[in-house]
Design goal:
By secondary structure, the chain is mainly β. The protein has a domain at 4-77: Nucleic acid-binding proteins (OB fold (Dihydrolipoamide Acetyltransferase, E2P), Beta Barrel), CATH 2.40.50. 13% of the residues lie in helices and 37% in strands. Strand 1 (4-14) and strand 2 (19-24) form a beta hairpin. It is globular, with a radius of gyration of 15 Å.
Length: 124
């Protein structure tokens, strides 16, 4: 499968094992990062809340992160806490978010100095 360029936020990381779990802008399955075998360098260090750009590849039904780049450290440091604080009832009562007149839809282009039309829904 051809790699797809994606933006995402690190939800969990383990500095010692150099592993991370990333929420993806397409709101599909989470993506998993581990440095590639035979990699010349160890790859970037991630902290929960870092905004990153990466290539995502699906291998054996698992989304894998390749070529990650930290764009904005500590972009959403409280995101994992907010996700843990969510309840099943609040998830069930969630309404679809529309882009029109919504303060919760953020154009990614404002962060990356690009004209990309991609948007991300922000919680909170």
């Amino acid at each position: 499968m051809k790699p797809q360029n994606m933006f995402g936020v690190v939800l969990w990381s383990d500095a010692a094992a150099r592993k991370a779990v990333i929420w993806c802008e397409d709101q599909g399955e989470l993506a998993f990062y581990t440095p590639g075998e035979g990699c010349i360098h160890d790859g970037p260090m991630f902290d929960a809340g870092d905004l990153i750009r990466f290539d995502v590849i699906v291998q054996q039904n698992v989304r894998t992160v390749r070529n990650p780049e930290v764009l904005m450290p500590s972009h959403s440091p409280d995101l994992p806490k907010k996700l843990r604080a969510g309840t099943q009832s609040s998830a069930n009562s969630a309404a679809p978010l529309t882009a029109k007149n919504s303060e919760k839809v953020v154009a990614l282009a404002q962060y990356f100095n690009t004209d990309a039309p991609s948007k991300v829904a922000c919680s909170g």
